[in-house]
Amino acid sequence: MIRIAIFFIAAGAYAAAPTADIKVDQAGYLPGAPKVALVVSQTLAKDFTVRRAGSDSVVFRGKLPRPVQDADSGDLVQTADFTKLVKPGKYYLEVPGAGRSWDFTISPDVYARVFYLAMRSYYGQRCGTAVDLGPEFPGYRHAACHLEGAYHPSSGKTGPHASAKGWHDAGDYGRYVVNSGITTGTLLWTWELYGERLRRVKLDIPESGNGTPDILNEIRWNLDWMLSMQDGDGGVWHKQTSERFCDFILPEKDTLVSYVIGTGQEPYKSSCATGDFAAVMAIAARAYRPFDEAYSQKCLRAARQAWTWLERYPDVPFRNPKGVSTGDYGDGNCRDEHLWAAAELWRATGGEDYERYFLEHFGEFRNTIRAAGPPSWADVAPLAMWTYALGHGKNAEAVAGIKQDSLRAAGEIVQRSARNPYRVSLASSDYIWGSNGVAANYGMQLLVAHALQPVPPSPSPAERGSRASGALARIVVGRTESRPPGCRDE
Ligand SMILES: [Zn+2]
Q1: How remote is the CA of residue 129 from the centroid of ligand 1, in Å?
Q2: 401 vs 41, which has greater pLDDT?
Q3: pTM score, two decimals?
Q4: Is the distance from CB of 355 to CB of 392 less than 8 angstroms?
Q5: How far is the CA of 282 from the centre of ligand 1 (A)?
Q6: Residue 279 CA to ligand 1 centre (angstroms)
Q7: Biggest alpha carbon distance in the chain?
Q8: How far is the CA of 241 from the centre of ligand 1 (A)?
């Protein structure tokens, strides 16, 4: 008892538990970037201090403005701006009457760690293999799971089916082609847009060191599963899951049969899944070409076959067949997936047929590049238009229009974020199931606008507004100012 008392005295007044009422950026802050903390307090303090963690010495004093009410939470929010503090280190905020914040870091490489963890999360979701995140996350491990699969009667086939690889879905152990579409597609885009920065980032996965960049090693785990979901006629089944969700158990304890599930009637495969598949495989063909030509060709063949099927069956929706209650991911309109497939296949091959399809149909979707609602697994038309513009499509008028729409929408997102007391990009109607994904996709939307028209790297008022659009945006923009710690030396 005596020793415990001495410890608390020695630790001083700031040993008090941090309060969630002072919200700092858990990822940290770049030295040259805008820096704010958001304070929710009934005491309406007038000032704040930033102290160095460990020594408790004051390194910055600032004034708190009048509070603003946040409509979504009802909170009264004050903004603590400490942008002028640029010295790297570990700090915390102190606000009279509210307490102290969690520690945060100012450093040139704060987003390297976030990127590493975000990518490691995919490794943690791997199906078909034992997973162990190691001593960093003790206990996050499981034995190999779902090693056997079978064709469900709704697939049009019978017998066993290879059940290999893929990532478990969020919250269940199913694997779904349609949400794999936007996930895998945008990860591949990350490589295409920022490959030079990501090439040497080591993710500590079993494939590390095999000569292929680790981000592509991880993505391939899901591509391989997606390839196993294509039928001989080119069509792609919607999902591989059990008939119902298993209990809350470890994946290797789930012994329900992992079925390839189809629509239950001819042609059994669905148009949305096949369109997403074609688009993703076309991007993969581009991305893996320098590292594995044979794999690149395999992906391209699969994409072309899927396209051929899609031309024959453009409008086959998916609904859970009788007796199946796992995720539906129903989508009544597969025209946007069709458009994305056309655009990515054009970008991979230069094929005139694909470009013609794109140019004949993209006008129907121009209004989907907007500030109110980013792309989602069910709405991939913006991806189609962006890949056409990023790939320098031949039709200059189309490219200019897409670029104009994208910049206008991005500007509105930035302004909305700047007006929001918590600096979040979400509108009130965006707080839906998985709304962190909505925020991340707004971040992606801003990144694409940035790629279409780069802005100077110095912090600006617009960037202050956009900063809350999510760490993802900043990670992938790659404004880290030094090599991430996960990099290997060449
Ligand atoms: Zn599994």
Answers
A1: 7
A2: 401
A3: 0.89
A4: no
A5: 26
A6: 25
A7: 80
A8: 10
